Amino acid sequence: MDANREVLAEVVLAVEQAGEGRLLVGVDGVDGVGKTTFADALARELIARGRHVVRVCLDDFLHPAAVRHARGPDSPEGFYRDSVDVDAFLVAVVRPVRVGEPIRTAVFDHRADAPIDVPPTPVPDGGVVVVDGLFLHRRELAAVWDVSVFLDAPTEVALARMAARDGTSPDPRVQRRYVQGQRLYLEECRPAHLATVVVDLADLHAPHVLPGGED
């Protein structure tokens, strides 16, 4: 078994140990670390093992630009505290999962800066909702996850991946809003201490699970 499969197997085991009911699984990490790719791979692995999976991206629950940039377009604190519409995510995803109702997998298109209306998606008993996104262990969300994963990599590595993906600058000075905003989150919430599984993703070809409580 290669390293990626070994890491996924450990996360799948944590999901299996979390129980048979509807589960919320969060994949957290800084911008560019590889959250979406990891969450998609985890979803495929769970499906292969017979679980019904619904994928959700927290980027589809952002505030409008006017809210996100209310503290200033370059504000790290604004990026951390004002990007995600936590209340909308709780209403559309978390609460329905807990009472067995269909969820809404998206409420906002940040590219168009406009609300969107998607049909409800049922989550059957035993289903798993896999969510990837930033700041999943912030105080308002840390307790909602049945299983959570924190993907860890050095800032320069994550910035280089983001640059390759989005065509942005890998210079942390240019990306100050995002780098410093994520640093605020890491220092305030210590997600690596809260996550069920912490994965060192510095090398995409050689990921490994870190002992609990790592930073």
TrEMBL record:
Pfam families: AAA_18. SUPFAM superfamilies: P-loop containing nucleoside triphosphate hydrolases. Gene3D superfamilies: P-loop containing nucleotide triphosphate hydrolases. It comes from the Bacteria. This is AAA family ATPase.
